[in-house]
Every structure is written in C-alpha cells, then in structure tokens.
Amino acid sequence: MASLVRYAARRADLILVVNPPGGHGARSAPGDTGELPGDLPRYQRHAPWLVRFCLILACLACAATASAQQLAGCETSKQWQIDRLTKDHAKLIGQVEVKCQNETFFADEIEIFTDQDRLIARGNVVFTSGESRIAADRAEFNTKTKTGTFYNAAGSAAMNRSPAREAVPSDALGPANPTLFGGTEPDVYFYGETLQKIGEKKYKVTKGGFTTCLQPKPRWELTSGSVTVNLDQYALLTNSLFKVKGIPVLYLPVFYYPVQEDDRATGFLIPTYGSSTIRGQSLSNAFFWAISRSQDATFMHDWYSRTGQGLGTEYRYVRGRGSDGFIRFYNLREHEASYPDASGGTVTTPERRSYEVRGTMSQMLTPRWRARGRADYFSSIEVQQTYNQNIYEASRRQRVFSGSVSGAWREYNIVGTFDRSEYFYGTSSSSVRGGTPRLVVNRNERPLFGSKLFYLTVNGEYNRLLIQRKQDPQIVDQSLTRYDFTPRLRVPFTRWQWLTVNSTAAFRSTYWTESKDSKGAQVEEGLTRNYYDLSSEVTGPVFNRIWTRPGSSYAEKLKHSIQPYFNVQRISAVDVFDRIVQLDSVDTVVGSTTRIGYGVANRLYRKPGGNGRSREILTASIGQSYYSDARAALYDKYYRTSFNGTAPSKFSPLSLLVRSTPTDTIVANYRAEYDTQFNAFRTMAADGTMNFGNWLQATAGWSQRRYIPDLQGFNDKTRLDHYLNALTNVRTASNRFGGMYQFNYDILHGSFLQQRMVAYYNAQCCGFAIEYQAYDLSRLGYSPVQQDNRFNFSFTLAGIGTFANFFGALGGSPGAR
Prior knowledge:
- By secondary structure, the chain is mainly beta.
C-alpha cells in the first residue's frame, strides 16, 4: 500500500506539472521544456495537504482503471490517460497500446465506442496482426468484424515461401532458382492513400503500390489504382505500372502475384521480351496453375510482331515414387511476312500453321510392372530448324512416338513396346521405322541343372516392323513381321585372375513373313533362317605393375595394368542371305564367317595414401577385327564407320579410345577409327568437361569426318564435316552474377553455326537476364534470312517464377526438369 501511495504521489506531481495554471495544455510534459520534477515552481511543490490528499485519491482511481480495463472487447493497459466522455465513449491519450484479441494498436490517441464496437486511432498509428504490420496516420476499426480502414498507410507481411514456379531447368541460366536470392525469403510491402482491411488477411489498397523488395528504396515496385492483397494467397493489381528504381518499365492491365505459403503458387509469371530477325519483336507471357501439391499446369502465349503468335500449355504431375510425367503442346499460327533479300528485293513467306507435342511419363502399375511413354513430335521441320534457339533442338530431324510396358515374372523379363520414329532428309523426304508392336520375352541367365559351369539364357521376340521411305508423293513400304528365338549357353572360366575366358554357344532361328524374290523385289512369301553362333572372349594374360610414391606418412600408389584381349566368333552358313529383307542388324548376319577381334587396353589407377579409394585415371585401348568373309565388315555394329557404303574388306579399321580422369572435376575422351589399308583416319572426335565447384563449368567437343580419295563412302566431299563446339558457365559463389558463352564452329567451311551469350544479375529481391544469339540459317535453303539475330530479356522478382518460351530462350526450355 505504501508503494502504491508513493506511486500516486508521483502521479500527482506529474499532473500538477502537466496542468499548471496558465500552462501549455494537457499534452505538455516536463521533457518539452527541459524541466525536471525537482525543478518545479514553489507553489507547485508546496500545495496544500488537502489538495495533495485529493489528488492522491484521484490518481489511485486512475491507476486502478489504467492497469486493467476492457473496452469493447479490447484490453487497454498502457495508456497515459483515460477520459470517459460518455458511458459508451472513451478517449485514450498518450502512448496508447490497445490489444483486441490477436490485433494490437499503438497510437498517440485512441477513441473507443463500446456500443458500436468501433475504434478510432490517430497519430503515429501502428497496427499488428500476426506477422503483418501496418503504419498509418489514422485508422477506423471495427473490433467485432476485425475490419477497418487505414489512411495514408503502409503495410508489410512475411511471405515465407519459394517462387511460384521453377520453370527453367537446372541446365539453364537465369534467375528462376530460389537460391539466386541468397536463400532469403521475400516479404510483401504495400502502401496507399487508403488501406482497407476487408478480411482476416485481406486488404484493399487504393492509389498505392506493392513490392516484395523491403528496402529503404525498393529496387522494384508495382504502382496501381487498386491493389487487393490476400496474405498467404495472392496480390491482384489492376492498371498497374512496373517500375525499376522508380523508372516505369512495363504497363500491366491485370497482374496476379502469388504470396501464399506453399512452395508453388498460382499466378502469372514474369513476361519475357525478345527480338529476332525472323520473328520481329516478341513478348511471352505465362500463367502458372498450382492444381495441387502433385500436379500443375502452365499456359503460355507468345506474340511475334512479324510472324504471328503461338499458344501453348504444359501439364506436369507426380503420383509417387517412380510415377511422374509431363505433356506439352504448342500451336504456332504464322501469317504472311516479307523480308528484304541481298539483291534488294523481298522474300515472302506464306501463311502457315504448325504444332509441337512433347511429353514423357513413367507409371508404376504394380511393384513389378511399369509403363512408360514418350512423345517428341513436330508438324513442320522448317519451324523446328528456324525457330529453336537450342542448336541441338534446331538440328534435330527426328520425331518420335513410343510407349512400353515392362515387368518381371519369376526369372522372366517381358517388354511390350510400340514406337514410331521418322527421320527427315530435307523437308519432304523421310524414312519411318518402328515396331508396331514389339514383344520381347527374356529368360534371365540361370545355372543349367544347378551347375556352376553352364549358364542358360533364352530370348524371344515378336516384332511388327514398320519401315517406310517417303519421297513426296511416293511412299515405299517395306513393313513386315519378324519372329526371333535364341537360346544361348555360356561357359565361363574365371579361375585365374590374370586370365578369363567366356565361351558361348547359341542357336538362332528367325522367321520373316516377307522376303525377296530372285529379282530383289519384296514379296509376301515367308522365309526362315537358322544358324549357329559359337564364340569365345579371352582377356589376358594381364600384366600389372605397382609404383609407390613416397612423400607422406601414407604413400600414394600407382598401378599400370596391360590387358590384351582376343575374341573369336564362328557363324554357320546362312544360305538365304540374299533373300532376306535387310532392315537392321538382325537381318545382316553374314553366314560361314569367322570373326577374330584382337587388341590391348592400358589402364592406369591411382590410390591416394591412407584409406583412399583406388580410381582409374587413364585408359587407352586399340583394337581391330578380321573377317573371313569381307562382307561382314560392312555390318559390324562395333565400329562407327560401318554401314557407310564402303567396299568390303577383311579388316576393320583400327579403333582407338583414350579416356582420362586426372581429377574428379576433369574428364577427357578421344575416339578415332584408322583405316590400315589407306593409312588414313576415317573419323576422329574428342570432348572434355571441367567442373570447379559451382562457379565454373566448361565443356568442349571436336569431331571430324575426313576425306579419303580412294575409299568408297569417304571420297564424297559433300559428306565431310569438321566441327568445334564449346559451352562455358561462370557465376559467383553467391550467384549474384553469372553468364554463359556457347558456340558451334564449322571448321570445314570456316563459319560459326551459332554463337550464344547469356548474362544475368541477381539482387536480394530482383534480377534480370540478357541473351544474344547469332544463328546461321544460310544452308537450310528455305529460310527467308541468311542469319537470325536473336535477343531476349527477362526480369525476375523474388517470390515469383520465370520461364523460358517453347523455343528455348534464355538457355532453357519449359518443362525440362
């Protein structure tokens, strides 16, 4: 009680200071004049004792009221003064704090109307609710409905989520990856002349703006006449203007920005701008629909100022471990367009409609059965080669549909497939191949009668071969049905580590529903072929030598292994070889032939000191084959230059292979085939990769098909090629800066097929990517321009995803994961 009286006495002195005769009004305080309570005037410090007693009683009453009082369901406990204006109307004055359940108000002055469940706050108003916060000059709030209006207000809330969609694959550059923002999650900030709280977490902003870049000067913002913010869900803006550092960049009639807590959120993705010699100016837009946690869809629109527009959609799903897929469809509508040519005239391209379908799926049917599917189809090879920015997609001439069901039953594997593949030569000629359908049944290798010396494998196949050659308007159809049955017996010898021998004996029986007659024409007459295949593969004797490199407590070791090999194969007579319709390697077996393969492989292993694992750091091998029948050299699938129309020879080319992995981050390969008859290389190729952490990745490749004047198949200069390719990705450790440079150079013709450069910058809450590409189209023969110069630009905002268009802008493609 004594302490309470002392507190009341101090409050009495304070009130005397606040309200002296002729003072500065009720809101004046000692701190405003620099006076301290001990410096009060004499008449204030020596007031009559009766006045002091009355003041003490009044302060006790006020203190009791201020410590705990409920007004309209709100708790007021820290205001300096309460004025009871009427029974249902109270005014709180001073540094006021009012808590209404989960909401809290701070203000200089708050009025509460208990009969109306209404609260009015003025002066330095701060409102908090959960993780959201609003600052305003004035606020009117309904304590029952939890709604109200804030004037000249600004609010913020934690989003605590990742971007709406990570549409660009990992091999693509650009700021679609959430780690590009330093791992920090963005917050949402909104402001306006009026800010209405119209729901528990829903606000409507008038004449204001919106951003997720909470900085003193945001790097970007969207200003709008009307903004609806639904925390944890979305922000919807109408007639908005996108600004970067205060500079207007883009007008958006409607913009939907996701701010929900899930890792994926429905909303519009950031548009991508581009330009191209062929397409003109372009603008790509996309809307991402997060259907559920296991499926989503993206709807895309491309506008091209010179050629037309395209519409596309992509659907992705995950149904569990091993069950996922995507399907993508794109429709391009081109109108007539004109281009200047080198002679000063114009080239006009006609109106055209084309489409593209791509997709893959994998579905677990049962624990032992799985279904797979693939679609990679385009309707126009011209669009494929002139529009794609990925050179590998642009040079692709094959379209495919395929599906399969595979499973295991006891020791049997069963695979049923349907596939159709079409390869184009030019724009009107193509070849179609496939199995419609194909059924393969394999009995896995098992010991014969429980013996560990003999192992039996049985393979069977039914295949409806689809073979067509198209040359508009002519179509040559060689389709037929083939049955194939092969039991195989293997006898391994592995008793010695320095010498291993694997011997096999197989019988193969094949039946075709069609064959060739004496004139070489295909007729509907069945044909059966039976032959025996005996072979042995010998590796060794193997020679090893180990060196120890001193220099540490655990010495490093190097091991050099020399592994010669010798293979021999004998195929019995095939009397019907000339009557077989030769469609693939199954049909091109040459009978009464002995094949002898020989070579040597050198392997170098390194084992670091201590308990480190041994690793192969260098492999170099050379090999060749001999055939008793020279025709067999034309169909040997073990050599890249077979099936090239070369003259029969009893010796294959020398095959050279070198692979080096000096470190875990560097890999290099070299392959070549050398013709010993003409002492010349037929083909050579080399490639390598370097990966230094996350900041540098580089790949390079080189290939050459050489000219040999006297060798059939290699004496046609129009079939030669000589290419150099390279790709380098560089970025800082924090991924704030990054870039890519890629080129494909035709050494034979001394020109670049394409050069591509991408650079990007990522701040804490925004970023951008720029791409330039020069693509040589002069060799196509149907392109309206000789070279297509392409430019693409994309913004990235924290908390929202970006995307690549269907033709691979900014180093990616939509849907590739």
